[in-house]
Amino acid sequence: MTLAADKTVEVRGEDSFDLAAMHAWLAGQVPGGARPVFRFHEGQTDNPALKDLWRFVGYLDGRCRRISGGGHA
């Protein structure tokens, strides 16, 4: 996993995420912080904007666990 000077994260060529764009997207799409994301996870909302965010968070969690050796993901 590398963090480029332009704040793009690239994971061994699999995917890349523009952190600045993700931050701006979060600020515009998810008022109230992380709580709406967990509402999506718990099935309390079907907001499509949160689906992509939940997948992104899950992806990062899995990558971090693999890198740290802290679990199977």
Written description of the protein model:
There is one protein chain. This protein is α+β, with helices and mostly antiparallel strands. It has one domain (about 1-70). It is built from 3 helices and 3 strands; from the N terminus they run βββααα. Strands 1-2-3 form a 3-stranded antiparallel sheet. Strand 1 (about 1-5) and strand 2 (about 10) form a beta hairpin. Helix 2 (about 35-40) packs across helix 3 (about 50-70). The protein is flat and about 35 Å long. The two termini are about 15 Å apart. The model has no long low-confidence stretch (mean pLDDT about 60).
Termini gap? 16 Å
Q: Which structural class best describes the helix and strand composition?
A: alpha+beta
Low-confidence stretches: none
Total DSSP helices:
3
The total domain count is: 1
> Helices and strands, in N-to-C order?
EEEHHH
Helix fraction bin: 40-55%
Average pLDDT: 62
State the total count of DSSP E strands. Answer: 3
Percent range for β-strand residues? 5-15%
Largest sheet: 3 strands, antiparallel
**Strands across the major sheet, in which order?**
1-2-3
Shape: flat
Radius of gyration, in Å, reads 13 Å
Task: Please outline the helices and strands.
Elements: E1 2-3, E2 8-11, E3 15-18, H1 19-29, H2 35-41, H3 48-68
Antiparallel strand pairs: 1-2, 2-3
Helix pairs in contact: 2-3
Summarize the structure.
This protein has helices spanning 19-29, 35-41, 48-68; strands at residues 2-3, 8-11, 15-18.
What attributes characterize this protein structure?
73 residues, alpha+beta, 3 helices, 3 strands
